[in-house]
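Example record for the data management plan.
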Amino acid sequence: MKFSYISHLYCPKCSEKYERDKVQQLCKCGAPLLVKYDLHSLAAQWKPDDLAGRRNDLWRYHELLPVADESNIVSMGEGMTPLIEMLSISTNIGINHLYMKDEGIIPTGTFKARGAAVGVSKAKELGVKEFAMPTNGNAGAAWALYAARSGISSTIVMPEDAPKITRNECAISGANLYLVNGLISDAGKIVGKAVEEYNLYDVSTLKEPYRIEGKKTMGLEIAEQFDWEVPDVILYPTGGGVGLIGIYKALRELQELGWINKEKMPRLAAVQSEGCAPIVKAWQEGKKESAFWDNSETLAFGINVPKALGDFLVLQAIYETAGCAVSVSDQALLEEQKLISQQEGLFICPEGAAAFHAARKLRNEGWIKKEEKVVVLNTGAGIKYPNTVSVDVPILEPNESIKPVTIM
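Corresponding structural encoding:
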């Protein structure tokens, strides 16, 4: 068997095909490129039992990943994150089978490590020496650190008010780091100019085809963790939407391989903030693409994307799975974050909290049924967002005493 069954790249808009062994960016029509695999050949040779005994990270699915030579893999053990049953919060919300896919425990503390691992590995295989990207924080941190591990140089541009810890991750990795007084869309314009002037490899969201392949492993893992029986609903905090697109792609590929039921696809729910909800607005209006969201603002910085390049792919995934798009307020996600910490002992990121509150809203509306199996993606560790928690803690003098909460 081959290490990877990558066949070629293709455009989901105009169907143009591109070679797999050359650096590729967008299609000539301006759309993102996707990776196509020889699933027909793979289905005849590869079965679920073949995963037994393999490495316990995302590279266990290497046949469905784009890196052709194992020696080019750049890895920190990312992937195979736990699927945690939320026993207390499920009762509180009214969903009997509620699970959290916890991406906060992988390298760099967010799911962005998946895209970085596969994207940087493929960049190494293609001979890339330096790349550039705009970021809201976590993606830049992940790509900068994986680049350092691979020996590739990185140039990162992020909004000035991006989380400071992600700025520090980029800086300490040796990245060529810049801050911009504006949004990620402004950072993107600066990166675009630099790419054109210096012929850098542009790894902006969906401007290279391989980040999505790393993100899709969340879908592969969810299917395997449920013993190839997919859940009824998957809720995903959506900014650029690469993870949602990837999960959908992964499940379609598993259907083609015959590993999961071709008649059942989870309903995909894209979750956004009320302060930045272009996908929600487009879905409510039945549109295939979103409009730029002016003056976007939210505490959940990772989903503050006013216009996603792959918005049409996000909306397509929602429509084709009978899914939905829902927005939540910053106040609601902060309350949900606190409740989950207190009831489950899990300090999740604000984007993950938004997705849990969306599950609550959709259950109250009857869109999610009580007996359904529901998975919420927590895309990062809460400790990466220290400013979302504000507490007034009493300060004791050395001779003072304390009182326990429960007095026996």
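Summary line stored alongside the record: Residues 6-74+110-202 form a domain with the Rossmann fold fold (CATH 3.40.50.1100).
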